[in-house]
Write a structure and sequence with these properties.
heterodimer, A: alpha+beta, Immunoglobulin-like, 2 domains, seven-stranded mixed β-sheet, five-stranded mixed β-sheet, elongated, B: mainly alpha, Cytochrome C Oxidase, Chain A, two-stranded antiparallel sheet, about 65% helix
Chain lengths: ~325, ~700
């Protein structure tokens, strides 16, 4: 019964596939939308489970039916009848086309609903906290224009208040993802995009760039701190510290470095601790976006344009 | 970049090989790089030595490289694809090994088997190779081999263009190969999104290697699409109506149409990027009005139809094998035709789902998300149709059926993750993550790779006259199934855990168990690759026992099984008059299927020509010169291409005439041989009693 052995193996592979997808729901995970910290990620997770559930209507018949057919109609010891010239059944056609159509109608309705609901451009409530994100090579600068604070690789948020993040980059295209809070959106030079989300419980999460942008792409992560409103008030009251986000500082940050190297360039200790700065100048993000709309006048923009040359990295410190 | 461009050697100098890197700094990354270059160099030397020692240069040139025979061109495409597959799988293995050693911290330099830049080259070449130089040559090769035989045609509509297409594809593959030894490859992934791949952020030869490989092989694929389409429209045997064509021909037609419309978009996006890089244009740069969103838009106008270009031939193969190995007619022929054509059309309307996260409005995302789901309907119908084909059949569990089973069970999981990704709201989470990587490997490996390997196993006897060893064939299939399961299902989990694709390092220790499982899967994939080559070798050694001169080892129903194995150059002694959809099956049902034609006549075949070889040579010189800025060579070789075409246009080219007597002699020998062979039932199909003459009384489909 060699055939039987193969079919048993097929079952085995199917069950491995099944258990692997089952495990991913059971395994405790950090820093992911499977443990949502806010309403957007929560709804995304629910929608994921919903889609898996609905799609099972068309998938389970294959996963169950194929092994059964192979077993029942195997050449060596067939069990069922043999109808070699049977090639069409009108009733069966209705089922084969009808069921997938119905499933897609249901899925499409849910898709419409959830896409509209989770549109990242729609604020989650009145007066969202305004934060700006500037993607640089291998780090993120966050600016709190209303608080006059800027950070590198740290995004602090008050729990319960909607947040509106406005993104751009001053280098190649990047994509900002805070999985446990919301989805990602591309950040592109000369353009802004938006992410609206909120945190519902305090906690620390990881945010990251997901669009490959060179050597140290793997280390372009940032810390997201969802704080209670009082903790957040303390955090903002702490101010920006000794550093000022001016053109000189920004030019150093703009170099192709990771956070630890940028800290050294700024005369700080070379750890992965986020940097805090005062951001007193107005319209930093707008000036960075505008750099890409003045054709032919390179290097006059705020902090320079183009790829920072390797020399400037060499002359750091 | 070098300080100065030499007028003779361009940017080439002795500093560009991985050996220089190795001398500068000995570490695991430079050792891997130099090792790969050495494999290329030693492999080439060994190949040249073998050809010289066996005195095979002459036969290789006369019988293969200059042959316009679609069957031989098909075989050469597949040989190219298998060589590139070996490199692609080994690269995959190196990447999995690297990530299993790449856990790091934010403050420390990246560690692991290879350096981050090296890793980026690996994922870029891996993707480029697997899509353009494995999947495409596999399917183009298989269609070249099978299509004319199934249509009852002698050859493609344009045999010499076919040669040129093969040549151009090989040039692309050669450029990617030579980047192992001379210079570096680009690091922007197989999609090479600017502005990262613009001249400012990616100076040097890397992106240029990709550009010229894609531009040149892309032109080859466009020509191939035209060739297939014209062949199907104009070269069908009398009586071969559209609705009598085997399903594989239908999917080939879909592929041909899609190639004609999709490949030019890739040529345009690559040409624009090339103009940006070479001529200071600003299509996709950050400043002077450039906008990278246009690149993504144009690239995926090609890119999405492309994935259906890849999958549809495999669907054609599955239609053929599910019917043949079940001893039963294909269920729902018309349904399958409609489904294939719908997929071909709808595939042009979904490309935006590759960048749901670019910031467009929810309405646009909804439209493309729903379009993406709609394409799942015909795909689902096809899967059910093949199940219905096997239902109430008599299924022989041969190697192709193992592949088909693996396809059924795994492809639906890929379909599920595809439906998940089609939801913009979820895509915002898993886009650019290893979930996506798992998804497209989940559809491309069980779909395209299994389909093509099943097709190779199925039609191999028609090409070489002997079957592939079934036991080893099945072992290979099981290894590919197991290798896939262990390598890629963990990537789903990692993606949901938030791991981005293309990560040279990561900091989350929870990833490690999944990395080890995926690493084990990569070992299985290497075993599968070895087993695949061993299957060919061991079958070659046992070719006498496995020989099927009767030409119909599986008791098939389509035209190609009516001819000897291996099929002669002219395929059919007389062009058949097709009477039914399963013409050979119907012939077998009537008495004496191997009746000789009443009369033989001279057959006109295209004569051999080195035209394709010369065009390929000139194109390679042009591309290499452009990559290294050797302008004099670029100009000369660029002019050589129209020169060669004009030269051929001015020559009088006589077709090769095969005399009626020669055809008659060969054909009578074949019919005599069939008469002397004893028919074999399907129970003995896998034994050495199978000489390619089936028991026709058993044919029931």
């Amino acid at each position: 019964m060699v055939e039987a052995k193969w079919i048993a193996r097929c079952f085995l592979f199917a069950s491995i596939a099944g258990s692997a997808s089952g495990l991913c729901a059971a395994e405790p995970m950090r820093e992911s939308f499977l443990q949502p910290m806010g309403p957007v990620a929560d709804e995304q997770f629910n929608h994921l489970l919903r889609v898996i559930g609905i799609t099972m209507v068309v998938i389970l018949p294959v996963l169950v039916g194929v092994p059964l057919i192979l077993w029942r109609y195997r050449y060596s010891a067939p069990l069922g009848e043999y109808t070699p010239r049977w090639e069409f059944s009108k009733k069966l056609e209705w089922v084969l086309w009808g069921v997938p159509v119905l499933v897609v109608v249901v899925l499409a309705s849910w898709l419409w609903y959830s896409t509209q609901k989770l549109d990242p451009y729609e604020p989650l409530g009145p007066e969202p906290l305004q934060v700006q994100a500037i993607g640089l090579d291998w780090k993120w600068v966050f600016i709190y224009p209303d608080e006059g604070i800027a950070t590198v690789n740290e995004l602090a948020l008050p729990v319960g208040r909607p947040v509106e993040l406005t993104l751009t980059t001053d280098t190649v295209m990047q994509s900002l993802l805070i999985s446990s809070l919301t989805g990602q959106i591309y950040a592109m030079p000369g353009m802004t995009t938006k992410l609206n989300f909120a945190a519902t419980r305090p906690g620390v999460a990881e945010g990251e760039n997901t669009q490959f942008n060179g050597t140290s792409f793997g280390r372009q992560k940032f810390t997201v701190r969802a704080m209670t409103p009082t903790d957040y008030a303390t955090w903002t009251a702490g101010g920006g510290g000794g550093l000022l986000l001016d053109e000189a500082t920004y030019t150093i940050l703009r170099r192709q470095t990771v956070l630890a190297e940028a800290r050294q360039d700024l005369g700080l200790e070379g750890t992965a601790q986020p940097i805090r700065m005062r951001a007193t100048e107005d319209g930093i993000l707008e000036r960075i976006v505008a750099k890409y709309h003045t054709s032919g006048r390179r290097a006059h923009g705020w902090g320079g344009t183009g790829r920072p040359s390797d020399n400037s990295v060499q002359t750091a410190e | 970049m070098n300080e100065a461009t030499s007028p003779i050697f361009g940017n080439l100098n002795w500093q560009v090989t991985p050996y220089t890197d190795l001398l500068r700094d000995v570490n695991s990354s430079t050792i891997v790089g130099a090792g790969a270059a050495s494999v290329l160099v030693l492999g080439t030397i060994a190949g040249v030595a073998l050809l010289t020692y066996m005195r095979w240069w002459g036969p290789l040139y006369r019988n293969w490289l200059t042959s316009p025979d679609a069957k031989k061109i098909g075989i050469m495409y597949i040989a190219l694809a298998l060589i590139m597959l070996a490199r692609g799988i080994i690269e995959g293995f190196v990447m999995r090994t690297h990530q299993a050693t790449a856990l790091g911290t934010l403050a420390q330099q990246e560690s692991g088997l290879v350096a981050p830049d090296h890793f980026a080259q690996l994922f870029s070449t891996h993707g480029t190779i697997m899509i353009f130089f494995v999947a495409m040559p596999l399917l183009i090769g298989l269609i070249n081999f099978v299509l004319p035989q199934q249509l009852g045609a002698r050859d493609m509509a344009f045999p010499v263009v076919n040669q040129v297409s093969l040549g151009l594809t090989t040039v692309g593959a050669a450029l990617v190969m030579i980047s192992l030894l001379i210079g570096k490859f680009g690091t922007g992934g197989w999609t090479m999104y600017p502005p990262y791949t613009g001249i400012e952020y990616s100076p040097g030869e890397g992106v240029d290697y990709w550009l010229w490989a894609i531009l040149i092989s892309g032109i080859g694929s466009t020509l191939t699409g035209m060739n297939f389409a014209v062949t199907i429209f104009k070269e069908r045997a009398p009586g071969m109506h559209f609705m009598r064509m085997p399903l594989f021909c239908w999917t080939s037609l879909c592929v041909a149409i899609m190639m004609i419309y999709a490949m030019p978009a890739l040529t345009v996006s690559s040409a624009m990027l090339a103009l940006d890089r070479y001529a200071g244009f600003h299509f996709f740069t950050n400043e002077a009005g450039g906008n990278m969103m246009n690149y993504a838009n144009i690239f995926w106008m090609f890119g999405h139809p492309e994935v259906y270009i890849l999958i549809l031939p495999a669907f054609g193969v599955f239609s053929e094998i599910s019917s043949t190995y079940s001893g039963k007619r294909l269920y729902g022929y018309t349904s399958l035709v409609i489904a294939s054509m719908s997929i071909a059309v709808i595939s042009f309307t979904v490309w935006l789902h590759h960048f749901f996260t670019m910031g467009q409005s929810a309405g646009v995302n909804i439209a493309f998300g729903i379009a993406t789901m709609i394409i799942g309907i015909p795909t689902g119908v096809k899967i059910y149709d093949w199940m219905a084909t096997m239902w109430r059949g008599r299924v022989r569990i041969t190697a192709p059926i193992v592949y088909l089973t693996g396809f059924f069970l795994l492809f639906v999981i890929g379909g599920l993750s595809g439906i998940i990704l089609a939801n913009p709201s979820i895509d915002y989470q898993v886009h650019n993550s290893t979930f996506l990587v798992a998804h497209f490997h989940n559809v491309i490996i069980p779909g395209v790779l299994y389909g093509m390997l099943a097709g190779i196993h199925y039609w191999f006897p028609k090409a070489f006259g002997f079957r592939l060893d079934e036991a080893w064939g099945r072992r290979t299939a099981f290894l590919f199934v197991g290798g896939f399961v262990f390598t890629f299902l963990p990537l789903y989990v990692l993606g949901l855990m938030g791991m981005p694709r293309r990560s040279p390092t990561f900091q989350n220790p929870d990833f490690m168990p999944w990395m080890y499982i995926a690493g084990f899967g990569a070992v299985l994939m290497l075993c599968a690759l070895t087993s695949l080559f061993w299957t060919f070798w061991t079958s070659y050694r046992n070719r006498l026992a496995l020989a099927v001169p009767g030409g119909d080892p599986w008791n098939g129903s389509t035209l190609e099984w009516s001819t000897p194995a291996p099929a002669p150059e002219w395929t059919f002694p007389r062009i058949p008059h097709v009477q039914a959809r399963h013409d050979w099956g119907e012939t077998k049902r009537s008495n004496d299927p191997w009746r000789a034609p009443k009369q033989y006549c001279d057959i006109e075949m295209p004569s051999n020509t080195p035209h394709g070889l010369l065009i390929a040579g000139a194109s390679f010189c042009f591309a290499f010169a452009m990559v290294w800025h050797i302008w004099w060579l670029a100009i000369l070789s660029f002019l050589a291409v129209p020169g060669l075409i004009a030269l051929r246009g001015m020559m009088i080219i006589e077709p090769k005439i095969i005399k009626a007597a020669e055809v008659e002699e060969a054909d009578c020998r074949f019919r005599q041989q069939v008469a002397n062979l004893s028919a074999v039932t399907r129970a003995d199909e896998e034994t050495s009693r199978n000489r390619g003459v089936p028991d026709v009384s058993e044919f029931a489909g």
